[in-house]
Amino acid sequence: MKKILSALLLLSIMPVFGQSSVETDTEKIAAIYDMALTNGKSYDWLDYLSNGIGGRLSGSYSAQRAVDYTKKELDSLGLDKVWLQEVMVPKWTRGAREYAYIETIPGSSTPINICALGGSVATPEGGTKAEVIEVYGLDELEKLGEEKIKGKIVFFNRPMDATKIHTFKAYGGAVDQRGNGAAEASKYGAVGVLVRSMNLRIDKYPHAGGMYYGDIPEDQKIPAAAISTKDAEYLSSVLKLQKDLKVYFKMNCETHPDAKSYNVIGEITGSQYPDEYIVVGGHLDSWDLGDGSHDDGAGCVQSMEVLRLFKKMGYKPKRSIRVVLFMNEENGLRGGLKYAEVAKENSEDHIFALESDSGGFTPRGFTFHADATQLEKLQNWASLFAPYYLHIFQQGEGGADIGPLEGDGTVLAGLQPDSQRYFDYHHAATDTFDKINKRELELGGASMAALIYLVDKYGL
After folding, report:
1. What are the pLDDT digits (tens) for 156-185?
2. C-beta separation of 283 from 299 below 8 A
């Protein structure tokens, strides 16, 4: 009788199945956040990556130092595997600092702030000086034609749309002029291009970024530079008063043969489904004007923190969880392509991949590239993140580096921080460690770890 009463009592205090699961998850996620906010490592890692190493252009000595440092730190975490994945990457160097000015009459000049766009050819040894024609989009080139463009510098001055609350949509609406402007302008005989920086703020800092010539012949490639938003506004206003003014600019950049580099990978092997893989990552390379703290040092250290938290808390995942620090997102995506290529060769089943590449600001949620059933399951977890003020759980993009993993049911996800300040720093000399808030950075890493925990526990 006592045994029966004891059994009945036990049943009476046991929550129903779904409730028990939710309570356990709530407690686990709270523990993840508590650990990240009181015993986090991401801020210290980023401090060294930014201040001890600095900007990490693909193929550079600094990029190799970043590879060595992050591998050493992953080795220290006691993961099951840590390795380097070789990848050949583009190597482009900026050379001596760029110089430019506006000339209204011979001998009268006003300096302007520019920087070479990544992948650009240099100007001739003596620089490039020519009249300027202002346009707001690639479609205007065909309308103007060779007669009005030949021998001139094309000034692309379409700003990012400040009415877009999602600033990445504003970026996407303007960045084509940076990526393809030089290739298109060269078809009409332009001798160079200036592109308004991808920045919502009016300031003096030019923003770098990749540009591409496509398959045009070497002798038709023209130099391409970003101009700060403040100087773009000034140049535009002066052009309205004087159409025949000239701009001079000098750049010393150079493209070298491809260089050997590496993706840095660490793994906790799954206890039940070791052949199912979950990836969390960011890109280790950056532009060279700043130290790449937000783009994307933050994403790298947050991703490393996910595995560190699991090890520190003694969590043994069911599935194999990998951190991947991708090389060469900025000007080639070679690291992401190589990782996906090797995964396919090894017939690896990647069920989920999460990337942080939108800065180290306060996390607001996640976007998912998923089918309807997968998305519904992910959205059912949203209430678990409400105490941490994460509200975005919606269809969207993952990240550039994990994009090549698309297919075969793999869900791609992206951490979505508050992006209002991101393009103040993106690809500019202002992307430095002093712009990082420790607590915001740690909240991002904890949010990623919490989502990875749920995906590992329940699958997709």
Report:
1. 999 999 999 999 999 999 999 999 999 999
2. yes
pLDDT tens digits, one per residue of 5-29: 344 333 333 333 233 355 599 999 9
Q: How far is CA 93 from CA 118, 255, 260, 340, in A?
A: 8, 7, 15, 27
The pLDDT value given to residue 5: 39
Question: Mean pLDDT, the chain, as a whole number?
Answer: 94
For residue 265, give the nearest of 273, 253, 254, 277 by alpha carbon: 277
| Interacting residues of 385 by C-beta distance below 8 A, sequence separation 6+ | 29, 365, 391, 393, 447, 450
Phi, psi (degrees; rounded to nearest 5) at 121: -80, 165
CA distance linking residue 259 with residue 59, whole number of Å: 5
Burial class (CB in 10 A: 0-12, 13-18, 19+), 63: buried
CB of 279 closer than 8 Å to CB of 268: no
Q: Which residue type sits at 334?
A: R
Q: What confidence score (pLDDT) does residue 107 get?
A: 87
Instruction: Read off the DSSP letter of residue 150.
Output: T
Whether the CB-CB separation of 121 and 290 falls below 8 Å is answered with no
- Mean pLDDT score, 399-427: 97
Q: What phi, psi does 42 have (nearest 5°)?
A: -60, -40
**146 annotated active-site:** no
Per the CB < 8 A criterion, the answer to whether 279 and 322 are in contact is yes
Question: Looking at the chain, how many residues does it have?
Answer: 460
Confidence (pLDDT) at 279: 98
pTM higher than the cut 0.85: yes
Cα–Cα nearest to 251, from 129, 91, 124: 124
Q: Which residues are bridge partners to 410 per DSSP? A: none
User: Which residue in 104, 436, 170, 90 sits closest to 295, CA to CA?
Assistant: 436
Distance CA 296, CA 327 (A): 11
C-alpha 390/C-alpha 365 separation (Å) is: 5
Question: What's at 41, amino acid-wise?
Answer: K
> 204 pairs with which residues across the strands?
none
Contacts of residue 32, defined as CB under 8 A and 6 or more positions apart, other chains included, come to: 309, 313, 446, 449, 450, 453
Written as one letter, the residue type at 365 is: G
pLDDT score for 23: 55
Angle (deg, nearest 10), helices 176-186 and 139-149: 40
From the candidates 329, 330, 355, 442, give the one annotated as an active-site residue: 329
Helix ranges (H only) for 136-228 are 139-149, 167-172, 176-186
The half-sphere exposure of 301 on its side-chain side, counting CA atoms within 13 A, is 30
